[in-house]
Specification:
Number of strands: 10
Distance between the termini: 12 Å
Strand order of the largest sheet: 3-2-1-9-10
Radius of gyration: 27 Å
Largest sheet: 5 strands, antiparallel
Oligomer: single chain
Order of helices and strands: HHHHEEEEHEEEHEEE
Shape: elongated
Length: about 270
């Protein structure tokens, strides 16, 4: 599961289309037909088109719900997008002579700008979950953890210290490539831990001696990582290659943390809600 605070762009096109058809349906429903020569025929056509447009709008809205998934159903931003598309469609269809062309141009521009904005937000805030850590116990300067990699078998670890940290080698790309959908490349090496040591200067963190390393690390190969690391200034689009360790102190027994590699760079350990 990808952890992200950004809006899911997947259902947006379906929501916009649903709003357009609902707006067209409302426009048809409010159109007067008494001044038409064949009043009954115009009235029948009006309600037939209303039913067709409304049905298409409902079908597209249902598709949007399935695309967004359970996490996106209650997102109010989807409601604002649907309301905006409905209002613009209604104005364009109801007042064709006065507002039709300007509203149509505004609608197209709005859809494009909204799409680009959501794409940029998703590109720079989304990430890829590469593993999960379940806390079995954490006390007396020792931790018992279950490491659950996405692409490997679960492993039980006993580590000294109060903090655990994933060891991840990452290749971070320029923001333009991230915007276009290029994800940060990673190599998940293993896990390490840190302990608090008191001295005259106060509490200090020191790395423990219970590191864990995969025999076959998930992600890119070691040779490919070394190629990026040695030539990061020569490879177009590469921002940097580096090793990330994000320290996390377990808060409760059986708590689960997701290890997430961000598209904008960096590794985060996030408590699973």
């Amino acid at each position: 599961m990808i952890m992200s605070q950004a809006i899911n762009i997947g259902p947006v096109p379906w929501i916009v289309l649903a709003g357009l058809f609902v707006g067209a349906a409302v426009s048809r429903a409010t159109t007067r037909t008494r001044h038409r020569q064949n009043h009954e025929r115009a009235r029948t056509k009006k309600w037939v088109l209303f039913c067709i447009y409304l049905s298409l709008g409902i079908v597209l809205a249902v598709i949007a719900v399935f695309v967004s998934g359970p996490d996106g159903i209650g997102d109010l931003r989807f409601g604002f997008i649907a309301a905006g598309a409905t209002a613009l469609s209604f104005c364009a269809n109801r007042f064709k002579k006065a507002l039709g062309i300007p509203v149509l141009v505004l609608l197209v521009a709005s859809v494009v700008l909204i799409g680009l904005f959501l794409q940029s937000v998703r590109a720079f805030t989304s990430g890829e979950t590469i593993a999960a850590v379940r806390v079995i116990s954490a006390d007396n300067g020792s931790m018992r953890l279950e490491l659950i990699p996405r692409d490997a078998e679960p492993v039980f670890l006993t580590m000294e210290g109060e903090y655990f940290a994933p060891i991840v080698k990452v290749v971070i790309f320029d923001p333009l490539l991230a915007f276009l959908g290029v994800k940060t490349r990673y190599r998940f090496e293993g896990m390490t831990s840190f302990k608090l040591v008191k001295d005259d200067a106060g509490d200090r963190l020191r790395q423990g001696s219970t590191d864990f390393y995969f025999h076959h690390a998930p992600g890119i190969t070691e040779d490919l990582w070394r190629l990026f690391e040695a030539n990061e200034r020569r490879i177009p689009g590469v921002k940097t290659s580096q090793i990330e360790m994000d320290l996390k102190r377990p808060e409760a027994q059986f708590e689960i943390y997701d290890i997430v590699v961000r598209n904008s760079g960096g590794v985060e350990v996030i408590p699973r809600s």
